[in-house]
UniProtKB/TrEMBL annotation:
The chain crosses the membrane at residues 102-120, 156-178, 248-267, 526-545. It comes from the Bacteria. It comes from Streptomyces tirandamycinicus. The keyword Transmembrane helix applies. GO terms for biological process: cytochrome complex assembly. This is Cytochrome C biogenesis protein. InterPro entries: Cyt_c_bgen_Ccs1/CcsB/ResB (IPR023494), ResB-like_domain (IPR007816). One of its GO terms (cellular component) is membrane. Keywords: Cytochrome c-type biogenesis, Membrane, Transmembrane, Transmembrane helix. Residues 7-38, 601-611 have a biased composition (Low complexity). Its main location: membrane. Residues 100-581 form the ResB-like domain. The keyword Transmembrane applies.
């Protein structure tokens, strides 16, 4: 981001005299590059090119009192002053927008704005749930509608935050990228005049020639993957450019993820389908039980494929504290690509979807579909089907409705419709205790409880109905001898005869299972994954790679012995720089060993002294 970054270095100032071993630490401190010079009484400018910033983060400037300078007299001068003032404010606003502080604020607001999208029902997800919420919260509904809280991700305010964050990232990355390219094309800066002023420093004397020492230092630094060059009487080197590469990669990855999110929201499609064993599904809009898509999605973009549910297999823990916990949960399907594709077998499991040309088939849930046969008063079959029922607990106790729409006539020969509210348990328990419940999710002792109604189901009114609920407003119940709703609990193979010879309904011994699938196309998923991996990689690089510079100076001393100086300067808290410099110094010292200490001169007695 274009935020001012404080560049500090944790250094160990190491001084080695004649005959000592390079790398002996004597002073440790934390300082900025300029402050490192001021600490020793040196002006920041004394570091020369060594004091250049090791980061591409630009300096942030305060808002001046007037951007355009003094105002010239006359209307032309006033106009020019106004233009300069406006341009100044625009530049200041742009610097603020592309700063790290503002980007973090926008990112926080984006996360904050996503909260109501998760807590409040959204039109793009479930319009029926939105309608129910509005009916239950009439006071808040107008407020939420004005704030677009039922369409958070497509609202004006969420889009504004999203676009500003996008612009902020681009406005930050582009200039920093060009600046970094310029740094890569440049050369490491020359050594400062006095290396002793740098945070990490060491020196020794050697009998090797200065030119030989500099050549050895140049070869050593290049071997350690430093960018190095000879600069006068010193060798200048620099390392750690991947830190800025990681920083830029992280910010570019954020843009990639924002683009992936936008693509996924605009071009996505997602729908659900409940399929009974033996039935199939073709990926067309009319086949879905429910369907949602992005604003730019085209129905023609649906991937052409079809599948048939051959068998659903579910096994459960039979005993112990985890009794009833699913162990196997899979759907065996036969699918084909396109209209004339070859049939292929596959098994769909939870979190193991079937992928067909970018469209994924997820297994969501399962339940039971008892097979029932309905006959009229003459014994003719008017309805036979496997009726899927919805689970209401972990033991798959299920409810639903068996609806007979056509074919049934009462004893007077008039057409009527029948409705049978159903309650199914795979393992019957509670008999004789006034209740009916399931004690295990597998088909151990199945039972089906039915009630009977006749009349009009209301399916011809044009108003959508829930297929798992019965609207009894235009229906009358069949009554038993007590005048109550006629009902009966059936075991597989048993038949419930309706009162007055109105017919019967049989619970067949065959019980099928159904599986609920989600078919989704998310074109931005791959891009988002790539962006996330790149962001983590860039973040690791920017955190653990340190940018640093090392200089080696070799000059001949007054006594003819070569004096070698080594110093380092790092960006941020380069805790490993003292150790790295000590290691480099030890390696170079092996090529240019420390010269022995000069022998002390013999004392000459003064004239007149006693012998």
């Amino acid at each position: 981001m274009s935020e001012t970054e404080t560049e500090t270095t944790t250094g160990t100032e190491t001084t080695t005299g004649t005959g000592t071993t390079p790398g002996t630490a004597t002073d440790t401190g934390t300082t900025t590059e300029a402050a490192g010079a001021e600490r020793a009484g040196q002006e920041p400018g004394d570091l020369g090119g060594a004091g250049d910033r090791l980061s591409t983060a630009p300096q942030e400037r305060a808002v001046p009192g007037s951007f355009g300078g003094p105002r010239a007299p006359g209307p032309v001068g006033a106009l020019a002053w106004g233009v300069r003032e406006t341009a100044g404010w625009i530049r200041w606003f742009w610097r603020q927008l592309t700063s790290m502080r503002v980007a973090l604020i926008l990112l926080f607001l984006l996360s904050l704005g996503a909260i109501p999208g998760s807590l409040i029902p959204q039109n793009s997800v479930d319009e029926m749930k939105v309608g129910t919420w509005k009916d239950n919260n009439e006071f808040w509904t107008p407020v939420f509608e004005k704030l677009q809280l039922f369409d958070v991700y497509s609202s004006v305010w969420f889009s504004a935050i999203y676009i500003l964050l996008f612009v902020s990232l681009i406005g930050c990355i582009v200039p920093r990228t060009w600046q970094f390219i310029g740094q890569l094309r440049g050369r490491p800066p020359g050594a400062p005049k006095r290396l002793t002023r740098l945070p990490v420093y060491t020196t020794w004397r050697t009998e090797a020639e200065p030119e030989a020492v500099r050549e050895a230092a140049l070869a050593l630094l290049r071997k350690r993957r430093f960018r190095a060059r000879a600069a006068g009487d010193a060798v200048a080197s620099e390392k750690g450019y991947l830190r800025e590469v990681g920083n830029l990669l992280f910010h570019v990855s954020l843009i990639v993820m924002l683009v992936a999110f936008a693509v996924g929201q605009l071009f996505k499609s997602e729908g659900g389908k409940l399929v009974v064993e033996g039935d199939g599904f073709a990926n067309t809009l009319t086949q879905y039980d429910d369907f949602r898509s992005g604003s730019l999605f085209d129905v023609d973009d649906l991937v052409p494929f079809s599948f048939t549910l051959d068998q659903f297999t579910g096994t459960y823990e039979p005993s112990g504290p985890q009794k009833g916990t699913p162990r196997t949960f899979e759907a065996a399907v036969t699918y084909a690509k396109g209209a004339e594709g070859k049939d292929r077998k596959a098994v769909v499991r939870v979190n193991e979807p079937l992928e067909v040309d970018g469209s994924k088939l997820y297994l969501l849930a399962h339940g039971y579909a008892p097979v029932v046969t309905v006959r009229d008063g003459k014994g003719q079959v008017v309805h036979r089907a496997a009726v899927p029922l919805l689970p209401i607990d972990d033991n798959v106790s299920s409810t639903g409705v068996i609806k007979v729409l056509d074919g049934y006539r009462n004893k007077d020969g008039e057409k009527e419709q029948l409705g049978f509210p159903a309650f199914f348990v795979p393992t019957y328990a509670g008999k004789g205790h006034g209740q009916m419940f399931s004690q295990f999710p597998a088909l151990v002792f199945p039972a089906l409880n039915l009630s009977a109604y006749r009349g009009s189901l209301g399916v011809d009114s044009g108003v959508p109905q829930n297929v798992y609920q019965l609207d009894t407003r235009k229906m009358k119940p069949f009554e038993d001898a007590k005048g109550e709703v006629f009902k009966q609990t059936l075991l597989p193979g048993e038949t419930m005869k309706l009162p007055g010879g109105a017919g019967s309904i049989t619970f067949e011994k065959e019980i099928k299972e159904w599986a609920s699938f989600q078919i989704s196309q998310q074109p931005g998923n791959g891009l988002a994954l790539a962006g996330a991996v790149a962001a983590i990689t860039g973040l690791v690089g920017s955190l653990f790679i340190q940018r640093r510079r090392v200089w080696v100076r070799a000059v001949r001393g007054e006594d003819g012995v070569t004096v070698v100086e080594m110093a380092g300067l790092g960006r941020s808290e380069s805790a490993g720089l003292p150790e790295e410099l000590a290691d480099l110094a030890a390696s170079l010292n092996a090529e240019a060993p420390t010269a022995p200490d000069p022998e002390p001169a013999e004392a000459v007695p003064a004239e007149g002294a006693e012998k």
